[in-house]
Amino acid sequence: MWNNLANSTICLLSVQAASFLLPNPPALQALFFPRVFFQGGAAFPYNTLGIRRMAQAAGEPNQPSSPLYNFPKVSIDDGIQKYVLLKASYRTDDGSLPLEQYYVRGRCAAEFHVECATVPIQEMESQGISVDIKGGGRINHNASAKTIRIYGYSMQFGRAEHLLTSKLCQEAFPDHQVEWSNEGY
């Protein structure tokens, strides 16, 4: 009966009203609102957007307002291509330690590895992001077979850390089989 009462009555109350009515608000809020975070009198839904908004409201450095969030982690073509692994750093306005993120950029049309990096670097640097090319290699992306094979190295930038590249590709393409090796050019 209490659950029905809680669901029908307490949920209609605002978070502020519930705080006044309940003897131990944080503990009871967790019972009545299990899919909601409470911070500083504000309620945030228990999902990715809610967590990001909570972090932003708290002023944490990993908030989504960082320009690092403006770029996809992986951008590759369908087919055999050269690729580069980029490490991007952004120093927040408060001067805290820089935020860092890795990105994979590949292009089938690229004759040289630097061609995969030129446009992304220009776009990132225009937003105050520092970018380093950490290496390169080749990617064979077969979208129809849902496979990604990472291998080889760049004559210009050396071998990228293929394990890291494979993890980023697996996150971006969770339904693909991703494999890597240091063999080949």
Automatic annotation (TrEMBL):
<keyword id="KW-0221">Differentiation</keyword>
<keyword id="KW-0732">Signal</keyword>
<comment type="similarity">
    <text>Belongs to the janus family.</text>
</comment>
<dbReference type="GO" id="GO:0007548">
    <property type="term" value="P:sex differentiation"/>
</dbReference>
<dbReference type="GO" id="GO:0101006">
    <property type="term" value="F:protein histidine phosphatase activity"/>
</dbReference>
<feature type="binding site">
    <location>
        <position position="82"/>
    </location>
    <ligand>
        <name>substrate</name>
    </ligand>
</feature>
<feature type="active site" description="Proton acceptor">
    <location>
        <position position="113"/>
    </location>
</feature>
<protein>
    <submittedName>
        <fullName>Uncharacterized protein</fullName>
    </submittedName>
</protein>
<dbReference type="InterPro" id="IPR007702">
    <property type="entry name" value="Janus"/>
</dbReference>
<keyword id="KW-0726">Sexual differentiation</keyword>
<feature type="signal peptide">
    <location>
        <begin position="1"/>
        <end position="17"/>
    </location>
</feature>
<dbReference type="GO" id="GO:0030154">
    <property type="term" value="P:cell differentiation"/>
</dbReference>
<dbReference type="Pfam" id="PF05005">
    <property type="entry name" value="Ocnus"/>
</dbReference>
<dbReference type="GO" id="GO:0005829">
    <property type="term" value="C:cytosol"/>
</dbReference>
<comment type="function">
    <text>JanA and janB regulate somatic sex differentiation.</text>
</comment>
<dbReference type="InterPro" id="IPR038596">
    <property type="entry name" value="Janus_sf"/>
</dbReference>
